[in-house]
Each structure stands twice: as C-alpha cells, then as structure tokens.
Design goal:
The complex is a heterodimer of chains A (about 600) and B (about 300). Chain A is an alpha/beta fold and about 600 residues long. Chain A has 22 helices and 22 strands. In chain A, a hairpin with a 5-residue loop joins β21 and β22. Classes of the chains: A alpha/beta (about 600), B mainly alpha (about 300). Chain B: Keywords: Cell membrane, Membrane, Transmembrane, Transmembrane helix, Transport.
C-alpha cells in the first residue's frame, strides 16, 4: 500500500493575543491508502487541531502551523496558500464532524446543500447534481432519499443526519476522509450502524479514514492503526493489537486500564449493606402534550409508561436505553422534579405524589440531583462556597461560620482543596466542576442521588476517578443512586442493578453482571452487542440493530420493540408483554425471553 | 395560512387597543375643547352651543362608541379646525410621510448592510474601527441635530441640495439621510455582531472543509443567519422613524403626518390627533406583521417547529 498522507514533525500553535500557544508538537503520522487510522486522546490533547491542520482549516480558527510538513500526493499542504488548498478540500480530503445536528446549515434543504457542494467541484447541471445526491444518499442507506432531499436538517434524526453528512463528504470520492468524533453524539446502536457504514464505504471506495475519537473501544472496533495523543504529542502509535494488548506509554496504559476496570461491575451485592427499600415507584406514567393545531385532537408523547421499580439503601440502580427512551423523565419523576400523571412514588413507604409544600421540601432535602453539563449547573457568578452552601441556607438555620465549616468538610470529602472555596466555577476543570456539583448534592446528607449522565461529558481517565468518588461516598454515607447514562460500560461498573428502558417502559431489570452476561430481552442483547469493546477477540461478529427508535408519539402496538426485533411474532405485534419475574431479582417484559428459552434448552 | 390569519386577528386587536388608549388620553388632557375653539371673549352660551354641536356634551362612553362605530364605516370624524373630513386630511399628508420613511428605511438598510458586512470582514482592522465609531455616532446623535447639520453643510455651505419643502426627489435626500442614519447605525452594529456570531457556527467549518469558497460562505450561509435578528430590528426601527418623522418634518419644513400631528396638538384638534395616531399605529402593526411573516421565509426552523 502506498502512503497517502505523511505528517512530518507537525507543530501547530493557537494565537492568543500576541502569544502563540503550542497546541500540537512534532506530530508524525502516516496514513496509507485504504487504511483507517484512529487518533485517540482526551479533550484538549490536540486531536482536532491536528485534523484541522491537515485541511488547513486551522487558519480560520485562530491557529497556525508553526513547523513541519503535511505531504499529500507530493504536495506540502502546510506551505500551500489558502487558494491552492480549495482544490483539495472536499475533493480529495473530506471531513465529517462530531455533531450532525450542527454540521449542516439549518436554513437550507438537504438537497440544496448537496447541489452546492457537488457543483462546486464538478461542472454538472443542477438536476444532474440532484440525481447524483440521491445516489449518494442511497449509498449510505438512507430510506426514501428523494423525499429526504426536500427536507431541512432538523426534520431528520441525529443518526440520519450523520449519514447525510457522510454522503455529503463522499460527494467527490475523496481519497481521505477525516471523521472527527463522528459517533460521539449518537446512541450506541446508531454508533454501531455508522461504524459499520464507514467500514463498508472503505471497502467499496478504497478511501482512507483518519478517525478521531476519545472513545478507546470505538477505536478498537474500527481502526487498523491507533495513535494516542496526549498534551499535543503522539505518545504512542501502532496496530490496534499492539496498543490495546501491550500498551507501552504510561498514558496509554492508564487509558486502557481505566477502560478495562469498567468492564466488570465492582458494585457487587456484598458491598451493599441494607435491604431496606428507600424509594419505590408503582406504575408511574408521564406524558407531555405536543403543540397541536386547533380543531385537532391533542397529541401526547408518552415519556414514561407505567413504570414500577424500587431502590434500596446503599444501592445503585442504573438506567440505560437509547435517547428518547424516557430515562431522564423517569429520573425526574423519582425526585419529584416533575409530577407523575398517574401512579405512586413511595419514599420510605410514604406516598409523596401530590404532597404539601412542606412535605416536598423535606423530600427535596433527601433526594438530590447531579446533571451532565458541569458548567451550566453552576452559577458562574457565584463562588464555590456560595454554590455548595446554598442548600444549607435553604434548608437549615446554620450560622455563616458553621456553613463555611460544612463547606470545607464536604470539599474535602469530594477530594477538592478546601481553600478553593473562594474560587469561581470557571477556574476548575470539568472533573473538578462535577465534584463541586456532587459536593452541593451531598452537603445535606441526602439518602438518594439522581445522577443523570453525570460523568458522560468527562474524559475517560477523569470519568473513572469521579466514579470511584461516587462509590466511596456511597459506602461512607449509605447513599442510593439512580445512575442514568448512555455509556453501557460505566453503568455496568457502578450499578448493582440495571433497568433497560425502551419507549417509556422498562423492558428488563436485573443485577448488573447477570444483565451483561445473560441478557433476557432481545433489546438488551442488541444494546450490548452494539456496545463497542476493547476486547479484540469478541469484535466484528455481531449483528447490528437496524432502524431507529420509533417516535414516542405513535409507539408501535403490542410490544414496542417488535418493529426492530428479529424474534418478533404475531403475538408481539398485538399484545404488550407484562413484566415477568425470572429467577432472583430479574424481571423482563418479553413474550419470548432469551433467558427462558436457553434455560429450557439446557434442561432438555 | 392559519398562522397568517391569526396574525391578522392580533393586529386588529392591537389597533383597536391603541385607538382606545389615544381616545382616553386625549380626553383626559386638561383644557376644554369647546372653550378653546370658540376663542376668547365669547359668551358661555355660544360655547355651550358649540359643545352641543360637536357632541362633546355626551357621556365619554357614548362618544367613544360613536367614534369606533364611525371607524368601521371609514368615518374618522371631521376636523374641528376647518371642518374637513379627517380621512381626507390624513390621506393628503400620507404620501409625503410614506415617501420619507420608506426612503429613510432604504438608507438605513443599504448603509447598515454594507457597513455591517465590511466591518465584520475587516474585523479589528482599521476600517472596522472607523465604521464602529461612525455607527456609534449615528446611533447616539439625535435626528434633529443630524438634520440641522446636513442643512448647514449641504444647503448653506455647499448649496448642493434644497433644505426645505417636499415634492422633488432632491428635497427628499437630506431628510431621508437625517432620519435614516440612526437606523443605519443600529443595523450596522447588529449585522456585524450577527455575522461574527454566525461565523462560529460549526456548519461553517464543515462548509470550508468541503471547499466552498469564502464569498459563497459569507453571502449565502452566514448572511442568511445574520439577517434574522436584523429583520426584527427593521420592524422596530420603522416605529422609531414614524416617531422621528414628527421632528424631521418640522426641521425640514415638510408636509406630512408628523407635521399634521404637531399642528393638531397645538389646536387641540382631537379628531385629527386620533386619526393620525390610528394611521401610525396601523402602519407599525402592519410592518411588524410583515416582519413576523418574513421570519418564516428566512428561517425554515420557525415553520417546522410548529408542525
């Protein structure tokens, strides 16, 4: 294979006023034709800057190449003028970015955006370009491509849009595709579809892919070669096997280790102290009305549909499911941030739905929340001590000195320097900010914490430290958690039990290890198979769940999952399965649970 | 379609509301109309007769309902001053004011767009600095002062353009600039900021990555985004221009609704005041309705979100 792209001693600086801050130092990387190379690293490690330098887009974002060469087809991109590069951009090297929702101009139709790009690079008529675009959409398996062409980006789902963005990048048969975190904003099931699509396109078109990701397992799934970036340099590169089986550099070792640590649940039954049930939900439902036209019946999104569950003292209940499955709404119902339409929520055996204001306040004191976005959850104009101390001012009558004392105590508890209480949120890193959020949540010694994607925005290494902190707090304070996340491995690591949600219903609930090793619901199994893994022997022998989660406005009749289920029968299409207990603490809502069948076969 | 209809309904409500408000304010103002109209040294009896003739002796609510009923028949009453129908007086003065506000709007939009784009393209360069200072001056200088300055420079010193009157195109130039320059300043600043903001949208990076040229990105993609806040602003500027026309028409001795209002207030010619304000309110409402409808053309997201 010939070398397509050669990056030699590349250094890139970002201009800050008069200074140039080095962002990438002496990077060397080769990409051969037809090869998929993954750049892996945490946020701020220089992955994206490197990719922007290859297209020289860095010039537009306040950066400049301070040294080195980028040889592409005997030309040094680093020394070309902007004008000369426009013949390469989009034509020979194309790019797909992270968030498909923002990668397309929202005010133009999909078709118009295709026509613009195609006609920029090829002298064809508008209608020829239109037809070509339809073929491209077919190539990325978009259903009904002709009608999609007339739609605007916001009418398509994230997964569809990422396919559109990939098709758009393919418009001129580029030789190199730069994909910057193309699956990070997507659900695992859709991520698996997109990864498969990229592999398929590589095989068909023979193009090379520079794939940027912070997600080790994704790299393990798709890459031929992996380069690990840390603080602006490539610290190690090699084949997938070399990197994941025998990491050399300490940073790679930490990364691989923190990923491996997630793969077994360390929250085993033994370290849970109590059998006492703290919080219980019985058949709770919540629907949101849609904006409707006059004279038409009101339509609803059934976000949570007759869910029952319980959480014991000191226990973590994980909730997983694709976006739109109702995880977050369920979480909010449990802590009374939203009022359930029907059903009961029992806190320590007492019904708290429709309680008085005082009862609500008491409940809020004992049930706290931590959300995903570490920054917007903290008032940027308040000092840390004011933020963390606020619950005390609301719920207690402590004096200023007492509050300060408690704040310092709790800062220590979340492993932050007590002296940092006088600083402002922006002075902290993402992981530290989440510790501040956690500190605020636990200062009243609550019994229950809702953690809604609380570690999802953090880098892998930081993530595992925050998880460790959460586990430690759970043991010390006897906290119960509901842990919502789309990353399955993290949920496995922290949860005692896990509930799988699909279109507002819990379809399976089981102890973490059992759920991961012997899923009973076909949907659970599909989710697990879609989950990328660094276990190299297991990969690429799975079937990918096809299609997307149906609209919760019009959920399929019978078992909601039947439209995507390979085992669905007539019964599944007409009759919704009830939650049935299996052995132990397991329950599943499926007419043909995998667990049972396998069990029956074993018995014969 | 339903949307447009409901907008019309709201517009009618706003106009009726402003009619009512003006009716109340004018009638609460101190000073007896009949006394004022009859003049000094007139016997009380004559004043009373006049009051009866004008229907001012009736209860306020009857006067109000009578007035509103008249509106629906296209009858805005008769002027106290010269007994002409109010509608005729208004229509006579409408043309010049429309010509003034529309040409001022053109000045504001054209100047604002060009300077705003230049300012954003040459961000933090010398040209940007000059434009930003100029637009600040434009925004913060009162209309009448700019008008007086323009007359002094172009009429008195340079003898290039006429300073007063209406009728010819030349006579429209100075007042339009005088009235439009504030709007131009506002639009310049707005366009500059929205262009710079839109340039940071992630899809702009994707477009560059696809090899789309600089100009196409600026004029086709960025500008369309930048126009959305600017269009809102145009609706508001139009209202300010209608208010500003009162002063500008006085400074440039032009005929128009603004002058008509000023004169009518002097003479306490209530039907004229009410009629003129009704006209102005109607304009303002119509323009803003057009603005609201035009969003939906510029930004499909607004249309789609209602589905």
């Amino acid at each position: 294979m010939r070398t397509l792209l050669e990056i030699r001693n590349l250094s890139v600086g970002i201009e800050r006023g008069k200074d140039v801050i080095p962002a990438v130092r002496n990077v060397n990387l080769d990409i051969r034709s037809g090869e998929i190379v993954c750049l892996v690293g945490g946020s701020g490690s220089g992955k994206t800057v490197t990719s922007l330098a290859v297209l020289r887009l860095i010039d537009y974002e306040g950066g400049r190449i301070t040294g080195g060469e980028i040889i592409f087809q005997e030309q040094d991109i680093a020394s070309l003028a902007q004008k000369e590069i426009s013949g390469i951009r989009g034509r020979k090297i194309a790019m797909v970015t992270q968030d498909p929702m923002t990668a397309l101009n929202p005010v133009f139709t999909i078709g118009n955006q295709f026509v613009e790009v195609i006609r920029k690079h090829k002298s064809v008529s508008r209608s020829e370009a239109w037809d070509e675009a339809i073929k491209l959409l077919e190539k990325v398996h978009i259903p009904e491509p002709a009608s999609r062409m007339k739609q605007y980006p916001l009418e398509l789902s994230g997964g569809m849009l990422q396919r559109v963005a990939i098709a758009l990048a393919l418009a001129c048969q580029p030789e190199l595709l730069i994909a910057d975190e193309p699956t990070t904003a997507l659900d695992v099931t859709i991520q698996a579809q997109i990864l498969n699509l990229l592999l398929e396109l590589r095989a068909e078109e023979g193009m090379s892919i520079l794939f940027i990701t912070h997600h080790l397992a994704v790299a393990a799934e798709i890459a031929d070669k992996v380069a690990v970036m840390h603080e602006g340099s490539i610290v190690e590169q090699g084949t997938v096997r070399e990197i994941f089986a025998f990491p050399g550099h300490w940073y790679t070792k930490t990364l691989v280790q923190s990923k491996r640590d997630l793969l077994t649940s360390s929250a085993s039954e033994e370290n849970r102290q109590d059998d006492e049930v703290i919080l219980e939900a019985e058949g709770i439902s919540k629907a949101f009305p849609l904006k409707s036209k006059p004279f038409q019946p009101k339509r609803y999104v059934q976000a949570v549909d007759e869910v029952s569950l319980y959480i014991r003292k000191g226990e973590t209940l994980g909730l997983v499911g694709e976006s739109g499955s109702g995880k977050s709404t369920l979480g909010k119902l449990l802590v009374s941030l939203q009022e359930a339409d029907s059903g009961q929520i029992l806190y320590r055996g007492k019904d708290v739905t429709g309680g008085t204001k005082r009862e609500k306040k008491e409940l809020r004191k004992n049930t706290q929340v931590v959300f995903q976005d570490t920054f917007s959850a903290l008032n940027p104009r308040w000092k840390v001590e004011d933020i963390i101390g606020e619950p005390l001012r609301v719920h207690t009558r402590l004096s200023k000195d007492e509050i300060r004392e408690r704040v310092e105590e709790v800062l220590q508890l979340v492993d932050l320097d007590p002296a940092s209480r006088t600083r402002y949120p922006h002075e902290f890193s993402g992981g530290q900010r989440q510790r501040i959020n956690i500190a605020r949540a636990i200062i009243l010694h609550p019994e229950f914490l809702l953690l809604d994607e609380a570690v999802s925005a953090l880098d892998l290494a930081v993530q595992s430290k925050v998880i460790d902190l959460l586990k430690k707090l759970q043991l010390e304070m006897g906290l119960s958690y509901v842990f919502i996340a789309h990353g399955l491995d993290v949920v496995r690591d922290i949860s005692h039990r896990i509930g799988v949600m699909y279109l507002g219903r819990i379809v399976e609930i089981a102890p973490a290890e059992e759920l991961f090793t012997r899923p009973a619901h076909p949907y659970t199994k599909a989710l697990l198979e879609a989950n990328p893994t660094i276990d190299l022997d297991r990969k690429r022998e799975r079937h990918v769940l096809h299609g997307e989660i149906p609209s919760p406005v019009n959920p399929p009749a019978g078992c909601h999952f039947h439209t995507r289920c390979l085992l669905a029968t007539e019964k599944c299409r007409s009759e919704a399965p009830a939650m049935e207990s299996l052995i132990g603490e397991r329950a599943v809502a499926c007419h043909y649970p995998l667990e049972k069948k396998e069990r029956v076969e074993l018995l014969r | 379609m339903l949307y447009v209809l409901s907008r019309f309904g709201m517009a009618a409500g706003v106009i009726l509301g402003s009619v009512t408000l003006v009716f109340l304010i004018v009638n609460i103002l101190p000073g007896d109309v009949a006394t004022l109209l009859a003049g000094d040294d007139v016997p009380t009896e004559t004043v009373n007769q006049l009051r009866e003739k004008l229907g001012l002796d009736r209860p306020l609510i009857v006067q109000y309902l009578d007035y509103v009923a008249g509106l629906f028949q296209g009858d805005l009453g008769t002027s106290y001053a010269n007994s002409e129908p109010v509608l005729d007086r208004l229509l006579d003065n409408l043309g010049p004011t429309l010509a003034l506000t529309i040409s001022s709007m053109i000045v504001a939009i054209v100047l604002g767009l060009i300077l705003g784009i230049l300012s954003a393209v040459y961000q933090n360069k010398l040209l940007d600095g000059i434009i930003r200072v100029l637009s600040l001056v434009g925004v913060s200088t009162p209309n009448f002062w700019i008008g007086i300055l323009l007359i002094w420079i172009f009429s008195v010193q340079l003898h290039l353009l006429p300073s007063i009157g209406n009728g010819s195109f030349e006579q429209l130039i100075l007042p339009s600039i005088g009235l439009g320059i504030t709007g131009a300043g506002v639009i310049t600043r707005l366009i500059r900021n929205s262009i710079l903001e839109a340039s940071n949208e992630p899809f702009i990076r994707s477009l560059r990555g696809k090899g789309i040229g600089h100009r196409a990105i600026l004029f086709k993609h960025i500008l369309r985004h930048a126009l959305i806040p600017a269009v809102t602003m145009v609706g508001m500027i139009f209202g300010e221009m209608l208010a500003g026309s009162v002063v500008t028409e006085t400074v440039f001795s032009r005929q128009g609704l603004g002058r008509l209002i000023v004169d009518a207030i002097d003479q306490k010619d209530i039907p004229i005041i009410q009629g003129a304000i009704l006209f102005t309110a109607a304009f303002y409402v119509v323009i803003n309705m057009l603005v609201d409808i035009s969003y939906r053309l510029i930004d499909p997201r607004i249309r789609l979100n209602e589905k």
